[in-house]
Amino acid sequence: MDINFPRDFFDEDIAQRALRHLGYHEKWDLFSGDYALQRTAEGSWYEYLVYEIMLDLSLRTDLIRSIVRKGDDVQEPCLAPHPGQNGFFYSEKGNLTVRGNGQTIAEMDLLFVDDHGDMGFFEVITSAMGLKTFHEEVCYKKRLLGAMLGQTRVPFVLVSSVDVSQYTSIQKIAAEPDCLILITNPIEEIRDLIYEGSLRRRPEKRPLHPKVIDVTRITPGHSFDYREIHDGNRERVVRAMLSGADGGMTAVSSVVDPLSKKVMLGALNTAGVEAMLHDRGIRIKDAVLSADDVVRRFSRAVIAFDIPAYTPVIYLKVKGKEAYLKIVQDTSGDLVFQDTRTPNRSMEGFYDWLNADKPTLQVGVAERYASLFFQSA
Q1: 129 Cβ neighbours under 8 A, 6+ residues apart
Q2: Which of 57, 95, 161, 216 lies at a CB distance of 3.0 to 4.6 Å from 91, suitable for a disulfide?
Q3: Within 13 A of 56's CA, how many CA atoms are on the CB side?
Q4: pLDDT at 59 > cutoff 80
Q5: Chain segment 82-101, per-residue pLDDT in tens
Q6: Start-end of H helices in the chain
Q7: What's the CA gap between 374 and 369, in Å, rounded?
Q8: H or E segment at 260?
Q9: Residue 176's closest CA among 149, 154, 147, 207?
Q10: Would you state the torsion angle of the CA atoms of residues 92, 96, 98, 104, taken in this order, to the nearest 10 degrees?
Q11: Looking only at Cα atoms, what is the longest distance across the chain?
């Protein structure tokens, strides 16, 4: 694929075809005076450039057995998320996602099947921002696809319009097996292929492609139950926290299956909230709430932690509302409000899971949670 894949993207036909996947406003954002809007639209357009190139390339090589359709090529409706969903799904915009228990746990820019019959994926970037955790994200997706499909190898390709070869995270990826890094022309140069008049052209309907498949045709070869993985993690972590054994965070991480991106330990009663917050408050905008304030203002407190960072997350349900406040720890060690979780369409699966019945945790778990996960403020 490295030999076949073009670095020179100066093909006007492909550039025009990539535009068909963008929504009306997204197309015009390519020429927006707002730099942020323009860069976001460029990123989407460049991603579809790669998709269109792969469609063409797959017809010229036996190294690519199938390409998973996306964007404007998607023929199936987006299924609304709900608890119990596991596997591959299209998002509302035709993006390729993996859902675990109804929530999106991974998104791939492109999926393909190689000549060995193994599913692989692409990530497509136009900026060096966000590369600090990029290696971890790629490793997670490789591990996830491998577990779901029963594959010992998961090919990965990074296509970038900026030279990211000197970044540590990229060098780690390049050193791993079945990984390929491709650097193309800068996006600013490739953009010369389109102009505002391009947006008024009616895109031609692409003929049926012999190697294109739907994401819903991909069925996990192994049993994949994200809720079961999560609940197993929760039980093992709670046991480790109550065991009284030394080992700190290592004792917790050693019992965690990393396919779970978050572990929700359970709900706290009044005594649990007081035990967790006995020496600290929670800052919500300009107010700092004590344990008593939290119990008075919120009907529920759920404690969790993210993986692989092992950082604490607390969800507080506002009394009388279908809304949880997400509380995280900032760099100074303070617990602060980050954002709100509501049952809107994009968060529906996660909200249902968060709002479902949770075991009430012992005070000892609340105390251990605070000692393990909270930095000294």
Answers
A1: none
A2: 95
A3: 15
A4: yes
A5: 888 899 999 988 999 999 99
A6: 12-19, 24-29, 35-58, 134-149, 168-174, 187-190, 226-242, 248-253, 270-276, 291-297, 348-355, 363-373
A7: 8
A8: none
A9: 154
A10: -40
A11: 69
